[in-house]
Amino acid sequence: MQQYDIAIVGGGMVGGALACALSSSNLSIAVIEKAEPKPFFKEQPMDLRVSAISAASADLLKEVNAWNAILAMRSCPYRYLETWEGPNSNLLFDSQQMGHPQLGHIIENRLIQLALWQQMQTHSNIELLSDATISQITRVENGYQLNIGDDIVHCKLLVGADGANSMVRSAANIGVTSWDYAQHAMLINITTEQPQQDITWQQFYPSGPRALLPLSENHASLVWYDSPSRIKALSQLPLSQLKNEIVEHFPNRLGEFDVDNAGGFPLTRRHAQQYVKDHLCILGDAAHTINPLAGQGVNLGFKDVAALSSVICNAVSRGESWWDKRVLQEYESKRRPDNLLMQSAMDVFYLTFSNDSPPLKLLRNTALKAAQRSAWGKKQVMKYAMGL
Ligand SMILES: Cc1cc2nc3c(=O)[nH]c(=O)nc-3n(C[C@H](O)[C@H](O)[C@H](O)COP(=O)(O)OP(=O)(O)OC[C@H]3O[C@@H](n4cnc5c(N)ncnc54)[C@H](O)[C@@H]3O)c2cc1C
Questions:
Q1: What's the fold here for domain 2-67+109-178+269-349?
Q2: Which residues are paired to 152 by β-bridges?
Q3: Which of 58, 51, 98, 64 lies closest to 79 in space, CA to CA?
Q4: Which of 32, 34, 225 to mutate to test the pocket of ligand 1 (most atoms within 8 A of CB)?
Q5: Ligand 1 within 6 A of 143 CB?
Q6: Which range, of 15-29, 244-258, 309-323, 373-387, averages the lowest pLDDT?
Q7: Which pLDDT band holds residue 370 (cuts at 50, 70, 90)?
Q8: The domain 79-105+182-266+369-385: what is its CATH number?
């Protein structure tokens, strides 16, 4: 039997960041991951799964020494964010107004994970158990026991960072409030003739937004939200026909481009009814998923990491029972209201913009124009989105 203080199930972006953030506590940590991320090489095509990383998340990744490794691979800082619906309703955010060199970075999820894996390997109190299949999770005295092949792992604290369909959450009988959005998202990687790397933009349509996220060099990620049946039909098209659909239905801003890769994703909102129990907690997508239209999912996960690691490290330094629900509850109290607020804010956007009602259309375009004229209002919105 292998004995650890903490076992983190899921070595993705959130689980990896948590392990690194906890390394200073000197607790022994196992990170159990079912699929090792593929290594990076420069000529590799861009992954479909990318995230808009806020300034606050970049700060966390700097604190755990993963940021420079990300920059050394691939990333794309952007200075402007523009959103609009009808003509002349454009709302433009500029990083200069925020006194920052950029509003955020678009980064492939796997590269964030790889940088965190590199860091984890530098800490002697972190052990990475990769390509591991957990067959059973059992509550035992003083913690949890995990069966992994022929091995048994025991831990005082079991952490679920294992994504939306969390096995840890199910094993702990933690329920979720959830619903499916009436939209799916298609992610499409393109290579453009003209560079357009300093701006991310999104136009709202009644069937859902259409957006561009810049990637490094002349690459970009398009996001097309639409009904599940439309996304399914688009996913089945050869890339050349998909390109024709994009030319016809996306804002006329792309110039000449090639389609490299595409895939559709269902969208579900979930919120776990509890984040903590005795000897157990969950965070990141295991605790909450959100409509990705403002790119906030993993940024919330990184805020969970900052809160949970500080609660555990403080309890360790005070000699408290850091695995106890009463201690871990402080993490849940800090994070639940913020996660709920962001989920609800995204739903207001989703519900307000996803319909064709003329009065509502007039109202939202008037609101966008008014917001564009309010420098103070724009600053507050951007501060929130940047996690400042
Ligand atoms: C279309 C789309 C676009 C998005 N865009 C953005 C964006 O721009 N910005 C943003 O902030 N967020 C975005 N998100 C959300 C973001 O992708 C998630 O919030 C983020 O991936 C959550 O990270 P995580 O580490 O919690 O979970 P995951 O990324 O799901 O990682 C979970 C890890 O656990 C491992 N695992 C799972 N089960 C087990 C098991 N039983 N045993 C061992 N290992 C296990 C998995 O292999 C994986 O490595 C988007 C989501 C979607 C669907």
A1: FAD/NAD(P)-binding domain (3.50.50)
A2: 147
A3: 98
A4: 34
A5: no
A6: 373-387
A7: low
A8: 3.30.9.10
